[in-house]
Amino acid sequence: MKISARNILKGEVTEIIKGATTSHVRIDIGGGVVVTASITNEAVADLALDKGKQAYAVIKASDVMVGID
Fold first, then answer.
1. pTM for this one?
2. Which intervals hold domain Mop (predicted)?
3. Domain range 7-58, its CATH number among 2.40.50.100, 1.10.10.60, 3.30.420.10, 3.40.50.11810
């Protein structure tokens, strides 16, 4: 598979929190860093995601927001 995104982070699924239509998938990419993605429950099923499975966090964004307290 080839994709245009340049930020591809390999890791292990540590948790899947399912909601009514959307799941939060947490991927441990190492170094104490966990990336959380919000994807549809259908996508979780299609990808056969489960805790302990290897997966990629693919990030493509046009904006990065910064905030302070």
1. 0.85
2. 2-68
3. 2.40.50.100
